[in-house]
Amino acid sequence: RQQDLARRGTGKICLEDRYAEPTLVTGLGTRFTQELRAGMKIMLPGSVGQARVDEVLSDTQLRIAGEMRELAALELLTQAGGTAFKAVPHVNQDDMYRAVYQRLNKGECIGIFPEGGSHDRTEMLPLKAGATLMALGATAANPDLGLKIVPTGLNYFHPSKFRSRAVIDFGQPIDVPPELVEQYRRGGDAKRQACDAFLETIVEGLKQVTLNTPDLETLKLIQAGRRLYQPTQHSLTMAQQVELTRRFIKGYNVYRDLPEVKELRERIADYNQQLHYYGIRDHQVETMRIGRAEAGALFVWRVVWLLIMGLIALPGTVINAPVFVVTSVVSKRKARAALAASTVKVRASDVIATWKILITLVLVPFLYSMYSAMAVVFVRRAPRWAQSDVIERVAGMATWSVYLWAYALTAFMSYTALVFGEQAVDIVKSVRPLFLTLIVGSEHTQVLVQQRQELSDDITELVNELGPQIYPEFSTTRISEQLGDGRTTHANIINESADAFHRKMREGEQALRQRINGAVSSSRASPTNEPEDCEPPSPPPAPRQRRASKYAFNPPTPRTMETLNSISPMEFLSNVTGTILGTVASAAEQAASTASAAAAPDSEQSDKDKPPAEHDDGALTPDPRKGLFYFT
Q: What distance lies between CA 152 and its chain's CA centroid?
């Protein structure tokens, strides 16, 4: 590309008389005759404007082909002292187009990124015309080519995170219209109009396989609505999630002005605000339906499994610690620089991902080679305290053999840490909802659970009502039926081992929850023991009706926050452990130990029994310095 070959020009440029001579550019300390020639371009900082050089008059004067009309460009060119510029050489693309035509005539494929650059916006950038020139030009030269354009969408879930998920979506092939080919052959304005018309067709095809929203807030709103919608009882695959999100975007753009949609938009925003306040995600709300005894048991159980997986991942984590530090520091620095120099990037997450990959490709082989060389030196010169039969046998091997075995062992430890570390991260994310249930209590968590269920019901009802008006073949099961169950398999031993660990943890959790629930049920049956965590059975669900939410933003009370900030982690774990041991012992002891270890004082218990809307403490503004839980 021309902009990839741009070089910073010497000195600065300005317009001395933008009205009388709008095409005469004057230089201050410039060397136009050495750095520029006719046909090249001058580009202003931030890509706010560029112009083709028509004639170089001297080292300090040149004439451009047309007047710069962009307001930002005129402000730079007329400011005192002028502005810096870049010299962009002219690139002859004829050789490139000939190579493309040859490949296509051989029946091969050409992959093109028509936006012409990477970005992290929530909508596509304006497409470049190169794809249309290639398609129309190749078909005009060979009418029997039968060329087709296949729109391909890359949909990322977490673009800047390593091993994050992505969905590649292929759209319907686009044929090259013969009438546009004839118009392209005529050249001039007809050729330009043919390219513009075909480019619009390509844009519409790409929109069918990508997610496009005007801003990040709208995308977050759509994603929240998609998560709350209940099309079937089955979980959705990644491809199904992308397709459902795409349909939600289309429906939102059509019905965004309806009163029902506006009301749901406000309720979703309020729900997202509460999730952010509590520091949890939407899928974790369901885990807050359980009582304190069950939450305490699961909390300790998952902490134990977290320690086990952490120990397995520790060696590989230590080995790759330099990679984590260097990639984090360098990628963030590069992202800040790219964000300052770009007009299209939002957070420069694409730059972060790119630099993480580049640094890893260089640093990981270097570190592994260094570790392997250190292993060879250690084996050859093992100190007295490290000598053993194993070291002696390894020392008898050839140097290159020791080096290769050490390199393979380092790679194996790193991959093991990666796989088990991912499982550990999932456990860490699941601990916080249990912590909230234990500490905050049902007075807040149940309100959030009920609010989610009510919001999910209303969204599902509204989508099922309006969906057939956009998609005539609409049905609540169509997406999952169309795209299949999406089951995946893991072929290597490390992934299977990590999955086996995760399954064992889940099986243990199920057994533990059944035991706790049996103990709680037995205590409920006793007339003398009434645990405070017991809740009356929920009434049968009433027919759904669309209504405004009666749940407002309801953070913890100041008394609860004071309790949270005063408790120490060791005291908390001690209380939880005591509660669980007492619960498992017997039903009668469970009721007594739960009341003594987990229950609040009588004054707080009376407040807890009241509906959340009747609290006298009112709403609490979160402290941005501490967050929800801050232990001193």
A: 20
> Is 12 within 8 Å of 30 (Cβ atoms)?
yes
CB 365 within 8 A of CB 390: no
Asked if 85 contacts 48 with a C-beta cutoff of 8 angstroms, the reply is no
DSSP code of 83? B
List phi, psi (to 5°) of 59: -65, -20
The DSSP-derived string for 471-509 is -TT--TTHHHHHH--------SHHHHHHHHHHHHHHHHH
Cα–Cα distance, 380 to 247 (Å, whole number): 64
* Two structure tokens written together for 482: 């169309």
Compute the distance between CA of residue 132 and CA of residue 423 in angstroms, rounded to an integer: 46
Q: Quote the CA–CA distance of 416 and 312 in Å, as a whole number.
A: 8
Distance CA 362, CA 369 (A): 11
Q: What is the mean pLDDT of the chain?
A: 76
pLDDT tens per residue across span 371-426: 999 988 888 887 777 777 777 788 788 888 889 999 999 999 998 888 888 778 87
The type of residue at 418 is L
Sequence-ordered list of residues with C-beta below 8 angstroms from that of 337, at least 6 positions apart, any chain:
none
DSSP state of 2: T
d(CA 134, CA 141): 11
148: three-class secondary structure by DSSP: strand
Summarised one tens digit per residue, pLDDT across range 8-63 is 999 999 998 888 888 999 999 999 999 998 989 999 987 788 899 999 999 999 99
Structure tokens at 189: 């304005």
* Strand ranges for 207-346 from DSSP E: none
| H-helix or E-strand spanning residue 51 | strand 50-56
Query: What is d(CA 70, CA 26) in angstroms, rounded to the nearest whole number?
Result: 18
The Cα–Cα gap between 81 and 255 comes to: 52
pLDDT tens for 512-533 read 556 656 665 565 555 444 444 4
Tokens standing for 562?
């004071």
Alpha carbons 74 and 68: distance in angstroms, whole number: 7
Q: Specify the residue for token string 């249990």.
A: 434
* Cα angle 427-432-434, degrees, rounded to a multiple of 5: 95
Note the helical H segments in 534-568: 558-566
Contact 40, 54 (CB under 8 A): no
Write the CB contacts of 546 (distance below 8 Å, at least 6 apart in sequence): 260, 458, 461, 462
Token pair recorded at residue 359? 């640094």
How far is it, in rounded angstroms, from Cα 532 to Cα 538? 16
Q: Positive or negative CA dihedral for 553, 557, 561, 564?
A: negative
Residue found under tokens 């660990």:
501
